[in-house]
Amino acid sequence: MHLDHADNTYPPRHTYGAPRPYRPDGTRRALRIGLGGPVGSGKTATVAALCRVLRDQLSLAVVTNDIYTREDAEFLLRNAVLPPERITAVETGACPHTAIRDDISANLEAVEELEETVGPLDLILVESGGDNLTATFSKGLVDAQVFVIDVAGGDDIPRKGGPGVTTADLLVVNKTDLAPYVGSDLARMARDARAQRGELPVAFTSLVAEDGVRPITDWVRTCLAAWTAAPV
Amino acid sequence: MLVLADGRFPAGGHAHSGGAEAAVAAGRIRDADSLEAFCRGRLHTAGLTAAGLAAAAAAGLDPLVLDDAADARTPSPALRATARRLGRQLMRAARATWPSSELDALAAARPRGAHQPVVLGLTARAAALGPPDAAYAAGYEAVSGPATAAVRLLSLDPFDATAVLARLAPELDQVAARAADAARRALDEGPGALPAASAPLLDIAAEHHATWSVRLFAS
User: Does domain A28-229 bear CATH number 3.30.70.1230?
Assistant: First the structure.
């Protein structure tokens, strides 16, 4: 008998794939929302702000995908937005988009382990490592995805499009407070985003403002309401 | 066989360097030649051992016995943990790709993950492959992982790294044949007949690597 598998009972777990929206006991599993976007656009700050607002009303956990450090996880821990057992860091071998799209196995393990150890959970946020405009999450890993860009990255990003901007369930344009200083035209960004995304929603945020994350929390709450209302 | 050995098979391998990251940091891998030396060493030690375990699982030896045999052949706790984590990730992909009651039974018996080579061998069995195929897949994985990682870590010319793998092909043939032969004998003689080649430097470096705070790869 080995210490690392002393427990020989088979804990019910999803055997593979995430599309099944149930826990093994038949109840609806946690909603999984992925947050992706370029480096420095404010993904971790957004996750932290979401946790602060939602943690008193929901059972929450976070998976971070750091590229070569544990900095994002440690930022969340240092800021004590959640207890440490609710934050898991996945290592991605220099390929953040692979871990959320092409080979999601490590992220699925992390998500399921969180449900097993601290669950039942209402919501799991999966934060991608900073990547480029083509990064998207596999539908096998998350139920909805948010793509976070910022005004300082250039106001032509919505026009450039790419899978993240075009297909994400929510596009967040962050750091709107900086727009006057970097010469970004918010109205143009909104117009371009609408042209690329049609009816899909766009949220303009400034996390330094009081309750600045509100547009995203509202969207998350809408997703959760739809998720819990869906027939099992 | 090609699906199983494909580096894009979604079983978590992309996040692991097979010891290459530690070897790069220590200056033991600097260029294509030193990468080849590293891969050759890994192929004939950890690779041979993994190939033997995989071939034996494909031949039908009890995977739980083989899992114990893998523990006995893996002195580094960090590498044991890595092998089990990768085993569990491979199990997930394998059960989705080649559903099998034997895979289900091993998953139930080892919920925290069985050693990756054992799962790999059982996966080959579920895919109706034989012990030599399983040995090839395990042996190839032992060198393809470090080669890919070296390309990312050193910005090594990817054509050079691929040529390294091609040059190792005859030796991979030998390792796979030895492993498959040992697996056949293990059917009568037990897991003691399986190769137990070890690479102390890989073990020591893996223990160091596990303590780094900044790294690109999980192992």
Answer: no
